[in-house]
Design goal:
By secondary structure, this protein is of the alpha+beta class. It has helices at about 1-25, 115-145, 150-175, 180-190, 195-205, 210, 215-225; strands at about 25-30, 40-45, 50-55, 60-65, 70-75, 85-90, 95-100, 105-110. The chain is about 50% helix and about 20% strand. α2 runs antiparallel to α3 (about 150-175), α4 (about 180-190) runs parallel beside α7 and α5 (about 195-205) packs antiparallel against α7 (about 215-225).
């Protein structure tokens, strides 16, 4: 009798867990000042629209389910009227999108560690990228003045900054090797034309098998096949 009762309990619990798993998904609650009621907000992956919602009382909710994490764009309007609100590395969880105005620079995403991870890399990469941009401006000015000796010094410094950006990218991929943030960075970054086939493969190989088998992991292989063998 006890065994029969225990079996029933296990069966009921397994069904409950199964139903809970089936019902899990993403839920994005948005509160952005300045979005009028009935304005449509869209969630897209590349050019493919995934979800949409209308603003009601200053709030919108997007809810659904993803097979695997994906990098998404949140925006309003269509065509030339389209306006991006946020980038989101999204998986099946709840998160908030808030803003003081419907503008990319004034909108924040919270509630997701994987989204915070890629943004942390992005902030550091932008800092290094800006430094290299400033160096390049001075480099071009020196070339215009025929000061090749000084220009070559700056060129070397610029090359070292680029190497720092690539090494930092690799360090983030290694740090988050078991996360969607690690899998997305090699193809999300703006360094593709600077990365060699061996760079891509080095990052791919530090990912866990689970991350390698995602669409993001497969995209790394595609980019590796297109890249030069060496820098």
């Amino acid at each position: 009798m006890k065994n029969h009762l225990l079996g029933c309990i296990v069966f009921i619990v397994s069904i409950a867990v199964s139903l809970a798993q089936e019902s899990t998904g993403y839920r994005i609650t948005g509160r952005i000042t300045g979005l009028d009621d009935d304005v449509k907000v869209y969630l897209s992956r590349g050019t493919k629209r995934i979800d949409s919602a209308s603003v009601k009382d200053g709030e919108f909710i997007l809810a659904g389910s993803l097979i695997e994490p994906a990098f998404m764009y949140l925006y309003t309007g269509k065509g030339r009227e389209s306006k991006k609100l946020a980038d989101i590395l999204l998986d099946n969880r709840e998160l908030m999108v808030t803003g003081t105005k419907p503008d990319y620079d004034h909108v924040r995403v919270s509630g997701s560690d994987i989204d915070e991870q890629w943004r942390d890399w992005y902030d550091h990469d932008q800092h290094l990228g800006y430094q290299r941009h400033r160096l390049n401006q001075v480099y071009q000015s020196l070339l215009g003045k025929k000061d090749t000796a000084s220009a070559n010094v700056l060129k070397q410094l610029g090359n070292e900054l680029m190497a720092d950006r690539i090494n930092m990218l690799k360090s983030y991929v290694k740090r988050y090797h078991n996360s969607a943030s690690g899998a997305v960075l090699p193809t999300l970054c703006t360094l593709q034309d600077r990365l060699s086939r061996s760079d891509y493969m080095e990052m791919y190989e530090v990912l866990t098998p689970e991350m390698q088998n995602t669409e993001m992991g497969r995209e790394i292989i595609k980019q590796a096949n297109k890249a030069k063998s060496t820098r």
